[in-house]
Every structure is written in structure tokens, then in C-alpha cells.
Amino acid sequence: MSKQEVPVPVAPAPLVRFVTAPAPDLALTSSISVPAEPYLPYSTQHYMTRKLLAEQAGEFRR
To answer: What's this model's pTM, rounded to 2 decimal places?
Structure first.
């Protein structure tokens, strides 16, 4: 009697998706609005928002 090899189907690797939850402090920054300008680069908006948050926290930079 001879054994016959049975082809085994190869299943693809499971797809893993990483979902990142927003950090708790990001919820606070979304409520603070920077004065609306016709167009401000993202870096400028981000800088102004960080500066405003730092000033409200009592941190002043020179």
C-alpha cells in the first residue's frame, strides 16, 4: 500500500489592523480654536495651538 500525499491548502496570513485610540489630551486641544485666517500652514496652526495651551498651563517661553 502506498500513501498518497494530499495537497494542503495554504491559508493567507491573517490581516491585522491596528486601531489607535485618541489620546485623552488630544480631546482638549480640539476644543481650542486658533483664529481663522484665509490660509495658515498646518505647522503654523499647530505651533499656535501648542503655544496657546502652554500659556494656559502657565508655561512661558522666551
So the answer is: 0.38
